[in-house]
Fold these 2 entries.
Entry 1:
Amino acid sequence: MRRRSLALVAGLVTALVTAPVAQAGQHRSCGGLAALPSVVSAVQDAGDATTPPSCRVTARVSDVDGGVVTAWVYLPENTWNGRFQATGGGGFSGGDPANLLEPLRNGYATAATDAGHTGATADFALDADGRLNWPAIEDFGHEGVQDMTTTAKALIRAYYGRGPAYSYFTGCSTGGRQGVMEAQRHPGEYDGILAGAPVINYPRMQTGQLWGQLVMLESGNPVAPCKFEAAVTATVRACDTLGDGVVDDVIGDPLACRFDLSLLVGTPTPCGTITAADVAVMKEIQQGPRRQDGRFLWYGLAPGAPFAGLNDTVEVDGRLVGKPFVYDLWWFSLFLAQDRSWDWTSLTRERFEAYFDQAVRQYDRVLGAADPDLSAFRRAGGKLLLWHGEADFGVPFQGTIDYYERVQRTLGPGRTQQFARLFLAPGVGHCSGGAGPQLVDPFAALVRWVEQGKAPETLPAAGAGQTRPVCRYPQVARWSGHGDPANASSYRCA
């Protein structure tokens, strides 16, 4: 449903026409923004030792379908660099004004949105009568970000007397999906988009996250956490040198790992001996969701990524039971079963398959972000920098590879490389963490690409006393055989 913030835009345009044009180096008063349509408050913040003075605006956009979107827009008073940086959310949160402080310190006019609901839970999916709340779902899916974008750009013009020279969007997980969705649906809004661990193919990914719990439930064999940990440790040890050629407790190329978990049968652990039934569960989790006839549904856990998070188990009354990730319980109970009291232990493989198909059918259009045709974004001059940690416990990086390769098939590999590149970070978890070196300021690489035309071949990473290059897909960083393995200069992309 198309329902942009027309009243706000019209009001701001009128304000720009009737108000005196700001002189170079000047801007309109912060208090004056409070009189503009849909602006709830405009507060002058004095700043502190680390954060510059700014005008902090809260705007609320009411739409014709009943949805209400809140946008927070922070405008640096004297340190604006002429650019706009929007930030995304995570999980079921559309965004958070706390994430605006770093862009503000760096001179950006910056914005975030609640994407149509308060808080980080999925309660918004159902209305008071237990029916799907489509206005809120659509706001979370993509319309809330567009409302924020329109609002922020109008306020920037109203405050500074001109629009931003460059506009950027940054986000990870849900924020990554929001960025990719903007490139697909509103290709002219952002010059550069940094999308980390993007939950592309959202209905498939989110539904697939419950797969491991279903496997353990139906097999009657919940696996103790330390057995999962032992399996990850053994896998990393067996495949450590793949890709990079060095021993560093990180698998440099997880998809090349062929370690057979069956070798673990009989291995003692603090929580018991690993059994053939335990290994069968682990193999199914790594294989990923399948239909009852064995056909592929979605990707599984990559070798070396932790089982913990989605496949947790706890002891209750002396018995080991599954403990699903709360986001998955929200997804199944609210979005799919539409029953707040839904009992996940009633799930069967047959019902899982039906829910999977329902998820794709109902939500792919509004939440999916899976359209590979980015030709309009390319024509608009946009740049898309995708990255994903290869030890992500919750969002399989294979799904991001799948999307990127579909973009290449649609537009051609050479043309795709001109505006969209993917980087896979070995040993890095979901958005951060993990044993691998962490990405160092990938946003700076995006800005250089947009403003200087310098397309990144590698992204810098550092951590645990070492530096590494993260190579653009499909290359991996390989130690040259000479020099310090802890130094990025000793590696080449191959």
Entry 2:
Amino acid sequence: MLRRPEYRRALVFCGLVGIPVSLAAFWFLVLLHELEHLLWVDWPHHLGWSDPPWWWPLPQALVSGLLVTLVVTRLPGRGGHIPAAGLHPGGASKAALPGVMIAALASLPLGAVLGPEAPMIALGSGLMLLLRDLVRAPATEAGTALLGAAGSAAAISAIFGSPLVAAVLLMEVAGVGGTQLFAVMLPALLASGVGSIVFTGFGHWTGLQTGSLDIGLPAPPILDTGDVVWSLLMAVAVGAAIHYVIVGGRVVAGLVAAHPWRNTVLCALAAAGCAALYAVLTDRSPSEVSLSGQSTLSQLAADPHAWPVGSLVAVLVFKALAYSLCLGSLRGGPVFPSLFLGGALGVLLAPLPGLGVVPGMAAGMAASSAAALRLPVSCVVLVVLIVGHPGSVPVIVLAAVVAFVTTELLPQGPGIPAFAAGRPRKPRPASPRP
């Protein structure tokens, strides 16, 4: 295969085009980060609040629901994949790409309990295919799959900060193997590596922030029997809980598909209501329930003792409910909220005899992400990267496998329905005039 000239040309093309795709991913993530900071930090401070008031998520959710519904019902591609369906290897077509980006901008900074990974996969794949058409390269079925995977890898490596995570994630999502694995993943790995270099260097040069996976966990002590046993038990419970959160998202997706305008807005407002009720009950910021949870996870890891038990229980309950509502109604990805829920549960259970904060968070994040994504290998690589220490790798692997098996053995719930077709208009009565 490497001796075929067309494959070598495609490999070089993927490496070169990984540069503009990574730059586009960088600026899109910067835009999301700046909008989130503006809406949830700057504006409340300018109005005299140290944290957003309890009602702050509600008007943003109304705007988000209306904009997402407008995209879903009016633009090609329906704003991208429904998050409750998980991650998909295919990206957006050229026609659907604007709708995917608008839906992500209307969801993520305005308080959706979702992450940016699904829109980024679509962005990378769609841009790669667009650049292919601009240079008038041949559009074959195999070439489209190869270029789409490479573009997605280049963009997704910008989020997770590692080309290895991007390559493994796309390999597991696509489910390829044998020579097909080599054919698809070699360009994807090349594009993600080039993209990671460009993304890291450009971010350092500009000083702009897009968020970080480094949550600052200390090095864990040597694992003992208590860490392993509690991690296994936690993985079963977390896997079952996250599974039913995802099932709830599929149920919500069915309700939204039947009546998009009404139910999308109602679900967005209900998710915002979870954040508002959390703020009223705990006197904490509603942003801890709203948004993806990436920055809140870093705060939790930096000072877990600053969270009272009641606040941890409340954020788990309300964020899980809001997560389920957003999975079926708005647009984004399922990764980061699941990581936060697993990490928060690990902190909550850390006082158990023989279990510490670091192994508890590591096992919780591995179990929750594996249950949400059904991609255990990718989740192990991702959580190992987040934790940053090899000492927790055994419990991460065990928790991911046990949670994956648990979710596979449970009833899978409803599928993702198609949107209802518009009601046919009644024919006009015949005019009495001749």
